[in-house]
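> tool_call: predict_assembly(chains=two)
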Amino acid sequence: MSTEFWRWTEYRKTMPGADWREAALLTAGVDVGSVSSQAVIMADGKLYAYSSMRTGSDSPRSAQNAMDWALEGTGLTLEKINYTVGTGYGRVNVSFADRAITEIACHARGANFIYGPSVRTVLDMGGQDCKVIRCDEKGKVTTFLMNDKCAAGTGRGMEVFADLLQIPITEIGGKSLDIDEEPKPVSSTCVVFAKSEATGLLRSGWPKNKVIAAYCAAMAHRVVSLLERVGVEKDFAITGGIAKNVGVTSRLAGELAIKPLETEYDTQLAGAIGAALFAHAITKKAKAGIK
Amino acid sequence: MIANYGYLDGSGQYFIRIDTEKCDGCGDCVAVCPAGLLAVGADENDPFREEPVAKVTEDQRKKIKYSCGPCKPGAARPPLPCVAACKPGALEHSW
């Protein structure tokens, strides 16, 4: 029987005790990424409900599904939401959005919400790209760099390794630290080259945990070169799916000698949270203009 | 904002860096670029900025190493037309 080792739990949540009926302004952010999609609903700029699921092969459908799921059981409907911002790789496919804003702007804003205003450097390690963003205390972008040409060092690469090593993707980080000795990183982060190198290492008798450690280390090393181009200023935070992989984040912290901030929030929500906050700010600004 | 357009791949890092505080959206760089990879338009990464700004067009962002190649001969490299044309000095290449 085959198992889908890349699979993670899709979920939705309504914040306990929150009621949209009491809110004056309802906004939403939908982040259609290359791997996952999130929808966030905010009531007066506060998190109300959200969902996180895999992006299917049909981006417009994924946006709609994520939104429908976030709304589920709340009694709230799409028509009642004042303003929706679409973001992410598939932002132009969010047919019901009032505006599309780049994930660079949204991740900075989202990280500011999730980690607080002390964040100055955000590393977003997404499904198929990496972004380094510097921002001010309001979450406004001051410098950015995005690498979306190559999927090395992204969630997609990790999925390939989960499948190759038959380790569930959510356990990779922990397992990569359960080793006797830190191995040398694999020499290439290119997913295709790294996979063949890893196959060779397995054949030569390396345990699976050591192989995945070597890949996590290579991934960390690769993003450090991007971070150094932009410069890392404290506080440093990581968003996106790879932020949940302690095997990569701990090695990254070691190389940079800076510990990333920790959060209770789901780091994959950062883009959608930022989008919902922009929706809130845009609506408020428009209302202020009318007055 | 310092906008870095480009990529890192197996062969190196290629980024065109535009300082959007210095850029006045004049479009001089757009006119001189033989590859047509620059454009002036809304700042996608600052939703509240109203002034237009120079950027690398979306379809060029993953191939600037090749598109910029003809302006970067190996030896005795002349000044890059886009960098030379930018009066406020807002544009730089990383390679």
